[in-house]
Design brief:
The protein is 32% helix and 21% strand. It has four helices and seven strands; from the N terminus they run ααααβββββββ. The model is unreliable at 75-79 (pLDDT under 50).
């Protein structure tokens, strides 16, 4: 047991003595600025931004009309040689817009019901609410007995038990 005791005393003695400290272990590592990697990374970042800008400009650039080169020579001579047609001396009367009537589609109001405060109309077996459209007409108003449909120029009313 004395061998173990002697070994423990040696270790205990070594722990109590402070170790000599070298200057390199306590001093922080000095960072040196390296110019070449910094320039390489900066150039790479600049190149990435430049290429993204070029792609963005290509995408968002408004399309310009192609300019067609004007032809000169024989073609112009042929066009100028053609006689101009005489202007019509008769005036053509304009169509009376009040006489033009719209052709409305056949619509059948099958039913009207209300649910959750909103009105629904069953027109040509399709459930519609205000703002919906059918055959080019828009549902304007739904009441208990009739439905108003709006066309481009007028308002059409469908009542129960009647068709357009």
């Amino acid at each position: 047991m004395s061998i173990i005791y002697d070994a423990l005393k040696k270790v205990e003695g070594n722990l109590s003595k402070p170790k000599p400290v070298s200057e390199s272990s306590h001093a922080p590592a000095k960072r040196t600025f390296k110019l070449i990697p910094f320039l390489a990374y900066s150039f790479a970042v600049f190149l990435a931004f430049f290429s993204m800008k070029m792609v963005y400009d290509l995408i968002t650039r408004p399309r310009q009309a192609q300019q067609v080169k004007k032809q000169t020579g024989r073609l112009l001579n042929v066009v100028t040689a053609v006689k101009q047609p005489a202007l019509l001396s008769k005036r053509i009367p304009a169509l009376n817009t009040q006489e033009i009537t719209e052709e409305l589609p056949d619509l059948v109001l099958n039913g009207i019901f209300f649910s959750g405060g909103a009105g629904y109309a069953l027109i040509n077996n399709q459930i519609l609410e205000e703002g919906d459209g059918i055959s080019g007409l828009v549902v304007r108003k739904i009441t208990e007995g009739d439905v108003e449909l709006k066309t481009k120029n007028s308002v059409v009313t469908l009542s129960l038990n009647s068709s357009h």
